[in-house]
Amino acid sequence: MNSIELVRQIESKGSFLCVGLDTDLTLIPKSFLKESDPVFAFNKAVIDATEKYTVAYKPNIAFYEAMGPKGWESLQKTMDYIPQEIFTIADAKRGDIGNTAYKYAQTFFDPASSGLNFDSITVAPYMGHDSVEPFLTFEDKWVILLALTSNPGSHDFQMSKSEDYIPLYERVMRLAMTWGNAEQMMFVIGATRYDFLQKVREIAPDHFFLVPGVGAQGGSLEDVAKYAMSSRVGLLVNSSRGIIYAGHDTAVSAAREAKKMQEEMTMYLDKYWIK
Amino acid sequence: MNSIELVRQIESKGSFLCVGLDTDLTLIPKSFLKESDPVFAFNKAVIDATEKYTVAYKPNIAFYEAMGPKGWESLQKTMDYIPQEIFTIADAKRGDIGNTAYKYAQTFFDPASSGLNFDSITVAPYMGHDSVEPFLTFEDKWVILLALTSNPGSHDFQMSKSEDYIPLYERVMRLAMTWGNAEQMMFVIGATRYDFLQKVREIAPDHFFLVPGVGAQGGSLEDVAKYAMSSRVGLLVNSSRGIIYAGHDTAVSAAREAKKMQEEMTMYLDKYWIK
């Protein structure tokens, strides 16, 4: 999917919501456990309930991988079920070099390889350019590079300043922008403080940001929209547990929470989106 | 496996060789393709040929993942076939936080979860302490943290100096050493220049290093032994393609190349290991 199709979808749905599919057998309503594939049955219920309100789905790969081969089968069925026009993110945070990175790209981008056909994958930058470039060779596919995350450990390295007083996350963004353009690369930006949101938008005016950390992790959705929305919206805001585990009747509770976020997002699109 | 068992194995085999199982259907001899599970059949041949000479096996997870659910089944069969006393490394370079990191740990460490029971996993440090700690809660399991790699991209961030003139890889090592001890953490150290090898051994005198980049990637095995061997050896030197794809008759060529490395390693253990 390219950025024009993504922005068109955001506009038509009045939403920049991404629903995270962190599906965990110990957290889903017990009624799904009697299905032959409880993970897929739950995901199907979530997708049916939320597809009107969301522009992206983000399966968290760890949750599928932890179930062995059958987890990958549930992931495959989930991907086949997600409507074609909705953007998909493999939240895999892979990061290796050369032919290994290319294998990871094939895993998530090339249906002839593993069966999966994601639009994008999250990638870690530690190993540098040769760990990112192999993903950029796939047309209309996206790398979503870890830049500034919202967890306590983000202070360990991401915030550490270099000898020219540039924090690592900024160095990552500036250098990565020389590897690929805003049509093939997004950044993971944890929604925390408004000054950081302003700063990262200044560094990358045209890039999409995948923003976790709104809601459960404490960020303000209005701050994200106010300080980081670009002329092409440039935002995908993720919510996982706040939507998928909002109640015992998934069809009702997931729809209610997704709709609530979509309505708030419509408001902020009206207020802050200067096309 | 704990470090005493690992060092005992190194001593008895006169080897600190790790064989990388980067098994690729396009590279294995054609004779394996007629087997029902060519990946496992090839790995079995490699293991049979090399187990006398090696102390560790390192499946490169990308290569299995790229084949979808059946790749994970080949990986499972390979793990079941590796002799119990040989150390196993999931070269997965995972890196995510909190409950997601815990799921990745379950995937590779908890046989009740995915079926797999690795001794260790490679992990990326970019997200900080909360992306590493969940792995450290598993007894007799190891995190092998990316520190200084041998690829060109290692210069992008790992070598960049902070405002107190400490390069990032050193900051990663020093901080990580406060999260876990030398009985549960190793570092990935690319075999490049002798001054770096001396430096990292000075930073972490007691830790094991997993060293890729010898042979095909250009490092000298003698330099690694001379400058980075510790009182507990502290080295696992990996070779993948140089061993597994050394010839058309895998049983013969893999044994020959592994034996060659083991003999060289025996010599360096005699010469440089000061117990």
Which CATH class of chain A? Alpha Beta
Task: Count helical runs of chain A.
Answer: 10
Gross morphology of chain A = globular
| CATH architecture label of chain A | Alpha-Beta Barrel
Mean pLDDT across the residues of chain A is 95
Our estimate of the beta-strand percent of chain A is: 15-25%
Q: Give me the oligomer status.
A: homodimer
Tell me the structural class of chain A.
alpha/beta
Along the chain, the helix and strand elements of chain A come as HEHEHHEHEEHEHEHEHH
Cα(first) to Cα(last) distance of chain A is: 21 Å
**Major sheet strand order of chain A:** 1-2-3-4-5-6-7-8
Largest interface comes to:
A-B, 60 and 60 residues
Helix content of chain A: 25-40%
Kindly identify the CATH topology of chain A: TIM Barrel
Spans of chain A of at least 5 consecutive residues whose pLDDT stays below 50 are: none
User: What is the domain total for the residues of chain A?
Assistant: 1
Query: CATH superfamily name of chain A?
Result: Aldolase class I
Care to count the β-strands of chain A? 8
Structural commentary:
Two copies of one chain form a homodimer. With 275 residues, the first copy, chain A, is an alpha/beta fold. Chain A has a single domain, classed as Aldolase class I (TIM Barrel), CATH 3.20.20.70. Helix content of chain A is 39%, strand content 15%. Chain A has helices spanning 3-13, 38-50, 61-65, 69-81, 98-109, 168-176, 194-203, 221-228, 241-244, 250-272; strands at 17-21, 56-59, 87-94, 120-123, 142-148, 185-189, 208-211, 235-239. An eight-stranded parallel beta barrel of chain A has the order 1-2-3-4-5-6-7-8, surrounded by four helices. In chain A, helix 2 (38-50) links the parallel strand 1 (17-21) and strand 2. In chain A, helix 2 runs parallel beside helix 4, helix 7 (194-203) runs parallel beside helix 8 (221-228) and helix 8 (221-228) runs parallel beside helix 10 (250-272). The two termini of chain A are 21 Å apart. The mean pLDDT of chain A is 95. At the A-B interface, helix 3, helix 4, strand 3, helix 5 and helix 6 of A face helix 3, helix 4, strand 3, helix 5 and helix 6 of B.
